[in-house]
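Retro notes, item 3 of 5
We never archived the inputs for the NAP complex last cycle. Fixing that now. Sequence and ligand:
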Amino acid sequence: MNYPIYTELPIQDAFVIEYRAFSDSRGYLAELYNSNKYKQAETENLQQITLSQSKKNVLRGIHKVPYSKLVTCVRGAIYDVIVDLRHNSPTFLMWVSIVLTQSNHKQLYIPADCGHAFLSLENDTLVVYGQSQPFNPALEDNCRFDDPFVNVYWHLDIAKLEISPKDRDTALLIPDNLPKGLSPHRTRILIIGASGQLGSILTYKLQKYYQLQYVVYGTYCNNKVDTHCVKMDLNSSSTENTFSYHSLLQLCHPNIVIICAAMTWVDGCEKSQNKAYDINCNAVFSLSLEAKKIGAKTIYISTDYVFGGVLPIYGDKYMEEDTISPLNVYGKTKHRGEQFVLSISKDNLVVRTSSLFGPDKLNKNFPCQVVRKLKDNLKFPAFSHVVSTPTYTVDLAECIIQLLVHDCSGVMHLAGPESASKYDWALKIANSFNLENTLIEKVDSFPALVAKRPLNSSLANNRIGYILPEFKFRGIQDALEDWMINFPDSLDDIVNPTKSKL
Ligand SMILES: NC(=O)c1ccc[n+]([C@@H]2O[C@H](COP(=O)([O-])OP(=O)(O)OC[C@H]3O[C@@H](n4cnc5c(N)ncnc54)[C@H](OP(=O)(O)O)[C@@H]3O)[C@@H](O)[C@H]2O)c1
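Structure as it came back at the time:
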């Protein structure tokens, strides 16, 4: 390991930094800053080092200054908070918190113009912070610790905290300087798997259309998302995680955790069963348990593959209460995940969906596969005996967002309105993209697939009809049209490959 280790935080340009302590029988030695190794340009120019001592339950901040800080707790422990107070930042008004202790060897890098505050968790706690300019009270532009538009969670009754008169009397943020219509105490959402097909469109919609009511945080695993997100691998054998599930939830203190992440490769689950159970069940259990501990609700995205697919008639669909009988490891792990989530809290919600498609950075979904092949004049074999209810992710994300205010629990099916075989679906895709459909070949038996597939796993949207009677999922053709009109850039890679390479 090359120390210091930098981990990006959901706040732009903010980092948690892990330093190394060299121990021997005498004690230990650690570099808290070394201009050859620390990469932040501003801290390379440290101009002041400050030591602060606090007794338990002292809260200092939220202090905003136009220079950066590097914060280390050298004795005791602090609950350290960064608030983004930069109006031009994509993460404006978001905050994160991390516990720094004398033994966890973590530091926080606070970018210039972000707010910083900490709550001392033990008596005689010592905090050292370097700053890239000398302290100048005239440059302070502080924010009150209990500002409702920032809404930091302090864990303790505020009446029990010791706060200086200066910090207590700091002015609240002025609504006129904030986005018009911004709600105080916005609901905080953590999307696990914000880099995936569904997670990314859910994040996009919440940030673009619902940012006045919601603050969104996310995680990715292999496909990096630039802001609002941290890296988190749900595979328990991973050695890359900086955060435990507990510290992830503490980082952003969500009200709602939406678990979109999964090992979704059906044949891969069959081949690597332990990994599939680890990601799709064990991690889901731990995450929803941690969520419950902080009073957050979990919404778990599940699948039509929990059903056996033996519906007798082509147009038949599974209802929420129908008998579960997964045929493959993927379906079994997702069902176990459902059971865990529902057993942890009666407030939790399981959303089952089916055959997702829509704008996706990786362009790996079914319409993308069909278009790629047909554009290259290659044959596309498609199952005519495997039926599901293709679901447009843009509609699914919108429906989930609209459900948030209804506080639903239990199991709910949310899927597209049409039952279609892969063959029928491929024909519609060819039609929408003006491609030659004679290259699509009907296949009515499984070749050497590793995992068994349900033959008809169509889902009936029964419950949602009572809760959001006006909400309509679009059929395949309308959804494809919306995708082409409203997200054309996402299709460049497959529709105009030469343009996207320019
Ligand atoms: N796709 C479908 O047709 C379909 C149908 C029914 C139900 N569902 C369910 O709907 C949900 C969303 O599906 P999707 O199609 O959006 O999935 P997806 O595009 O395959 O995305 C999967 C997400 O999970 C993350 N992930 C994968 N392995 C991980 C790991 N070890 N640790 C942490 N994160 C990990 C991925 O992160 P990185 O990309 O950063 O690695 C990504 O964000 C899933 O729960 C799935 O079971 C999907």
